[in-house]
Amino acid sequence: MTDKYVTRCPYCGGSEIITTCQTAYGAVTNAESILHSAELYHSVCRNCGSVLRSFVKDPEKLLKKKDRKPKDDIF
Fold first, then answer.
1. Is the dihedral of CA 37, 45, 1, 4 positive or negative?
2. Does 62 or 1 have the greater pLDDT score?
């Protein structure tokens, strides 16, 4: 998978950016409840190994179901 937001490493100038997924123990959790968590992804430069961006693919997972936006309202 390629990252559409990061195309070049600001540290080494490399253009090969890979997306990695952190293990379950490194998941992002809601501050109010550890039951609501999402996997943390990183955009990493393949050349120098710098982490260029960290993100959660589905931030709605961090909210309680009653607080989530309906799928139609996201975009």
1. positive
2. 62
How many whole angstroms separate alpha carbon 44 and alpha carbon 51?
A: 5
Closest alpha carbon to 12 in 45, 56, 43: 45
Share of the chain above pLDDT 70, in %: 83
Evaluate whether 19 touches 45 at the Cβ level (below 8 Å).
no
Residues in the chain, total: 75
Residue whose C-alpha is closest to residue 6's, from 39, 40, 43: 43
Report the phi/psi class of residue 49: left, alpha or beta, with left for phi > 0 and alpha for psi in -120 to 50.
left
What one-character DSSP code corresponds to residue 36?
S
pLDDT at 3 exceeding the cut of 70: no
**Does the pLDDT of residue 68 top 70, yes or no?**
no
